[in-house]
């Protein structure tokens, strides 16, 4: 059986969990937080998520894990057969990671510490998000799925990226980023309606109290040091 290492409050973890559930693969969850010794054994940078396969192969990086799962378990495919269409799916995923996820993440420490981000940081984040908005407006089809008529890995990936945009960028910048992409909110609501997304969300909510305790302890330790 596959082991999924990490914690369900992580959107990256949930990308892989959603993929495993979609493909109906049997897996067990091993609750572990970032940078722990246990995680370092399976993830070279000590980040969540990582997986261990039944034959003992360890792998980290959410999009790489998803590619591996697709290649190893091609049943219930999440990438189109056509190479150009497959590349477009990956392009949407990459752009959402670089221009939506990563800038939004820069604001997480301010949200967790209850402070307002400096204007210079907000400006930088706004600029990167603006490029993401332009690119995703050009690439996303929402017909009905993000890359066309097939539900693909990009639907899973962007859905969980958007949770970070909404929770951190939109709140800190007072900017409804997703509303800048016509069709995005309706598509988001459609993915949220799926039983798989609901199951993943249950896991996230169950983990949140413990995760917040973990974050609070980390902030205290950092302030003490
Ligand atoms: N590029 C990585 C990012 C993973 C990541 O940032 N994970 C966060 C949790 S959402 C983490 O492990 N943070 C703990 C740490 O940085 O020590 C991926 O796609 O898997």
Quickly describe the structure.
This is Glutathione S-transferase family protein. The protein is of the alpha+beta class and 225 residues long.
List the main descriptive attributes of the protein structure presented here.
Glutathione S-transferase family protein, alpha+beta, Glutathione-S-Trfase_C_sf, single chain, 4-stranded mixed sheet, 9 helices, Glutathione-S-Trfase_C-like, 225 residues, Glutathione S-transferase Yfyf (Class Pi), Chain A, domain 2, 7% strand, Glutaredoxin, binds glutathione, 2 domains, Glutathione_S-Trfase_N
Describe, in plain words, how this protein is organized in 3D.
This is Glutathione S-transferase family protein. Residues 82-211 form the GST C-terminal domain. The protein is α+β, with helices and mostly antiparallel strands and 225 residues long. It has 2 domains: 2-77, 3-Layer(aba) Sandwich (Glutaredoxin); 83-192, Glutathione S-transferase Yfyf (Class Pi), Chain A, domain 2 (Up-down Bundle), CATH 1.20.1050.10. Helix content is 60%, strand content 7%. It contains 9 helices and 4 strands. It has helices at residues 11-22, 37-40, 62-72, 83-105, 108-112, 119-139, 153-173, 184-192, 195-224; strands spanning 2-6, 27-31, 50-52, 58-60. It has a 4-stranded mixed β-sheet with strand order 2-1-3-4, covered by helices on one side. β1, α1 (11-22) and β2 form a beta-alpha-beta unit. α1 packs antiparallel against α9. It is globular and about 50 Å long. It starts with a strand and ends with a helix. The relative contact order is 0.13. The model has no long low-confidence stretch (mean pLDDT 96). Glutathione is lined by residues 10, 12, 34-35, 46-49, 61-63.
């Amino acid at each position: 059986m596959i082991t999924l290492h990490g914690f369900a409050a992580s959107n990256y973890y949930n990308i892989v969990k959603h993929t495993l559930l979609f493909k109906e693969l049997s897996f067990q969850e091993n609750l572990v937080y970032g940078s722990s010794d246990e995680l370092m054994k399976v993830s070279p940078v000590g980040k969540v998520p990582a997986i261990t396969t039944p034959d003992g192969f360890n792998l980290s990086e959410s999009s790489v894990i998803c590619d591996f799962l697709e290649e190893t378990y091609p049943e219930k495919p999440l990438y189109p057969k056509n190479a150009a269409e497959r590349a477009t799916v990956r392009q949407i995923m990459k752009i959402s990671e670089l221009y939506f996820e990563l800038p939004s993440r820069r604001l997480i420490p301010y949200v967790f510490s209850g402070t307002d981000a400096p204007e210079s940081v907000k400006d930088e984040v706004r600029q990167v998000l603006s490029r993401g908005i332009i690119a995703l407006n050009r690439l996303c089809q929402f017909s009905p799925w993000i890359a066309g008529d097939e539900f693909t890995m990009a639907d899973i990936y962007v859905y969980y990226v958007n949770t970070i945009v909404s929770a951190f960028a939109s709140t800190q910048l007072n900017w409804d980023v997703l509303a800048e992409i016509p069709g995005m909110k309706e598509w988001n609501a459609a993915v949220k309606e799926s039983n798989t997304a609901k199951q993943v969300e249950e896991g996230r909510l169950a983990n949140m109290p413990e995760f917040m305790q973990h974050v609070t302890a980390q902030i205290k330790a950092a302030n003490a040091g």
